[in-house]
Amino acid sequence: MTRSSLYLKDSIEAVVIAGLLTCFLARLATADVPVLLTPIALVGDAAAGLEDVVYTSYPIWSRSSSDGRLTWQADLSNGQEGIWVYDVLGSRPIALAGPGAEYESFYNQGSGFINSLGQVTLVSERGADQDIVVIDGESKTIVLSTDEQAPGLAPGISISPGSVGVSISDGGIVSFRRTLDGPGITTDNDNSWWIGPVNNPQVLLREGDPAPGLPGDQIGGLVSGFSKNDAGYAAVPDSLQSGRRAIWAGVPGDVQLVASEGAPVPGFPEQFFGSFINQLAQVSSSNEVVFRSRIVDASSQPVGDALFVGGPGNLSSVLATGDPSPFGEGETIQTIGTPSLNRVGKALVTATLESENGNTRGVLMSFDLDDPMDASLIVEVGDIAPGTDTAITSLPGGYINDRGDVLFSARLAGFGPANFGHGYWLKPADRPTQVVSFEGQTIDFLEQGKLVQRDLRTSGIPTGLSEMGTVGVLLSFEQGGGGLFLAQINPIPEPSTSILLVVAVSCVALLRRR
Q1: What is the pLDDT of residues 294-346, one digit of tens each?
Q2: Which pTM value belongs to this model?
Q3: Which residues form a coiled coil (predicted)?
Q4: Inter-residue contact 391 to 333 (CB < 8 Å)
Q5: Beta-ladder partners of 236
Q6: Phi-psi region of 246 (alpha: psi -120 to 50; beta: other; left: phi over 0)
Q7: Can you give the residue ranges of every domain in the chain?
Q8: Residue 307 pairs with which residues in a beta bridge?
Q9: Element (H, E) at 508
């Protein structure tokens, strides 16, 4: 065979190799792949940062920050309990409680909330008293204690044990809801929302105080649908002592009414705010409040739902029952779910859409608040859930981060009780959806250098979605045990990377033949 014919044969083989690689990589780019799961803390593992001690319990809870840090609490073989942080430096304990430890015990509901500054909240218990603490590296700041005078309130009034809604923003603003104790405190004035810097929290709203913007009415029992942005601007839905509900927004000393049940709806002639569904309001980085409300007519009969955005005296509807669908001509919006909001003005909502012939479909979609018609369809009821051969039957909702990655939950067909057939999926902004975890899934992961395979007993409990697209998830196994995992987007090759890889492999094939 001549040299030129050898070159021709090599070239043909290289083209064939390139074609096969291109097909393989194209298939990979659209494959139903799972996220990458990395074990962080499993039952029976050596406890990070401690000697001769192992985790004896599944993590009691886990939280996450916007930059991907994780916290968790677990029991230890030495009789103590601890709180750990996982970040780029690895895992380490930040607080221990129990025999011989710094703290007596932890109150679970308020502990472990972490921000991108590395500040972590802790509610420690000492006998009948509690301290709300913020840990910042080696420093610890006591925000409020139950046995001390509550700042800004009448002498002798203190906060009671039992923190609800504790969180800390990326701007270092802490917030929490506490009941009060002391002279003159009754069940009609003992609830309070607090917000402010770690060293100076103040009362935002207190039960029994005059309701801003509603003369003659008083703040009611205070609910848990509170939210704040990084700067500390807050939105608070609440029930009034008259029985109505309302939403306020602002900062301590300057709280204003946003909307109240029975008030006229801007842009909806002769229609009024009905119930604020789920009593949940969210606030954007630009201090805009986002909430969902039932709309009623003058006889209090419901006429639909709407999603609103704005502030005191400046509300507008973003989506409403009867509005055109962003996805199909002649299709309209029938129902709207509770929104999830990121920090750059994009919302994630579930919705039911109806066609002209009366057919309906449930969808999960994302859109900019200032242009809801420019929406992205994330997933639809009836789709086959990635990583399974089963159809999605319902979409409870999800999270969206600033770059547009979406973590959503879904229920699958063919399962019985409500606690079964549930799972979580991650839709990166720039690639196909990847499965995080679902009940009955078999997962593979590396533990101490060995490949381990386990069957999931539950769908897992995600801790939220970071700006890098990572998710902390608590998983339990049919074989026993479980723990905290870090779920990361699987790095499927980009098209440009795939082309370079094809060229490189093809060139290597040619060189090896010469």
Answers
A1: 999 999 999 999 999 999 989 999 999 999 999 988 999 999 998 999 999 99
A2: 0.86
A3: none
A4: no
A5: 248
A6: beta
A7: 381-513
A8: 292, 319
A9: helix 495-513
